[in-house]
Amino acid sequence: MSEVKKHDTPMVDELKKGPWPSFVDDIYTYAEKHKKQACFDIMGQLELSYKHKETHWKHGGIVGVFGYGGGVIGRYSDQQEMFPAIWAFHTIRVHQPAAKWYHTSALRKMCDMWDHRGSGIVNFHGSTGDIILLGTVTEQLEYIFYDLTHQLNWDLGGSGSNMRTPACCMGYSLCEWCLFDVQEMDYELSMAFQDELHRPAFPYKFKLKFSGCPLDCVAAVARADLSFIGTWRDDIRIDQEAVRAYVGGELPPNAGAFSDRDWGPFDIKKEVIDLCPTQCMYWDEKEKKLYINNKECNRCMHCIAVMPEALKPGEDTGVCILIGAKSVILEGAQLSTILIPFMKTEPPYDEIKDLVYKIWDWWMENGKNRERVGELIQRVGLNRFLVDVMGIQPIPQHILMPRVDPYIFWREEEVPGGWTRDLAEFRKRHPA
User: Do 157 and 96 form a contact (C-beta atoms < 8 A)?
Assistant: First the structure.
């Protein structure tokens, strides 16, 4: 094994200090053990970037594997003479299993392959959700793809203007609050949309995420173009004896979480009633009984998380479908908007697939380059999207609050005759 060349990295070494684990320690430890020149060069180039206050990665063209348009992100150094081992440092995205359940033998085989074919640096998990294999050269891409798909039974994830790798929470496998089979839906839609996942044809990226309950552990509402959130449409189940046990201090709130901090006596008014976003709850101190106006409940699940022994979701379960979340791209970040407040689902999810294809067809026809579907809806208007594309009438659940300014806009054909007469009468009385 040839001797490796190390670089002086005083600014990068500063990241080793402090109480938190450091990627610098991790990379240097691995590089020393396996004599990986690419790892030393990546640290050397990072030091140079800190010194110059600019990146030294350049985009030198599209790279990939035969038959796939996504899954590989090309990366080249603009300091190839100084750092020859990372002249190319391509990233491979590997499709993670639903809920990120792994067998250790599968992970060991993948890591052995990556030690042989690439830099050995792995990211579990990036914001994309995929397993990220960081750093290889162009000549190794087809070999890596063959090893992943034929030897290890993995596949590449999404990258570019396509459907990105779907992601879900732990679901039934770990969580008592899961309200639909997130892992089954994740797998079924991943298999159904293989062409959209591997061959970019969209205006920009499209993300599907699945959370088993409104606590939304995968942050779908903030990150996904189409979110599926478990919900219910009957009443919250209440165990009044358990509620009294929480109030009396016999049961710890939040299932005993944060037990290292003394929160003092449990105050149901302060911790639950006053924090209800719709103020739909009432604690009768005299009767020692909790009342919930379920028609006003927006299913945030705060009360259930605070008193899990006393409150549980209803039993008539399904999904709430939201659309349009994204981070900062052309415009600012935005959260999802409710599209369908409640839908019952079961495999093979044909109604979900039809819905996705309808959205994609409209987006591909009307979306601009690098325009996420949420930005397109924002540009044309939510009402037009709901009525003209989805064929559904807007309902109160589609908005956070009514308009707070005095200006009302409508198309002439949307105004009923009675409204027109009322408006004409109003203008006679108030000419200004």
Answer: yes
CA distance 370 to 141: 27
Spatial distance between the Cα atoms of 343 and 264, rounded to a whole number of angstroms: 41
Helix (H, G, I), strand (E, B) or coil at 177: coil
For CA atoms 248, 249, 251, 252, give the dihedral sign. Answer: positive
CB 338 within 8 A of CB 293: no
Characterize the bridge pairing of strands 208-211 and 226-232.
Answer: parallel
3-state helix, strand and coil shares in percent for the chain, rounded to the nearest 5: 40, 15, 45
CB 116, CB 90: distance < 8 Å: no
pLDDT tens track for 373-419: 999 999 999 989 999 999 998 887 787 666 555 555 566 666 555 44
Hey, what domains does the chain have and what are their CATH numbers?
A: 10-151 (3.30.70.2500), 167-233+316-398 (3.30.413.10), 237-312 (3.30.70.20)
CA distance 120 to 187: 28
Residues 6+ apart with CB under 8 A from 241: none
CB 228 within 8 A of CB 220: yes
The answer for residues whose C-beta is within 8 angstroms of residue 201's C-beta and 6 or more apart is 161, 162, 364
pTM of the predicted structure, to 2 decimals = 0.88
Query: Which residue type occupies 241?
Result: E
CA-CA distances (angstroms) from residue 173 to 98, 181, 211? 11, 9, 13
Long-range contacts of residues 327-330, Cβ cutoff 8 Å, at least 24 apart:
327/223, 329/204, 329/370, 329/372, 329/375, 330/370, 330/371, 330/375
Q: In what order do the strands lie in the sheet with 131-134?
A: 72-73, 91-94, 131-134, 121-123
State the pLDDT at residue 431.
62
Length of the chain in terms of residues written: 432
d(CA 158, CA 65): 13
Asked if the bond preceding 116 is cis, omega within 30° of 0, the reply is: no
What are the backbone angles phi and psi of residue 85, rounded to the nearest 5°?
-70, -15
* Closest listed residue to residue 303, CA positions, set 278, 335, 337: 278
Q: How far apart are CA 46 and CA 361, in angstroms?
A: 42
Residue whose pair of structure tokens reads 């079924």 in the numeric block:
188
- Residue 58 identity: K
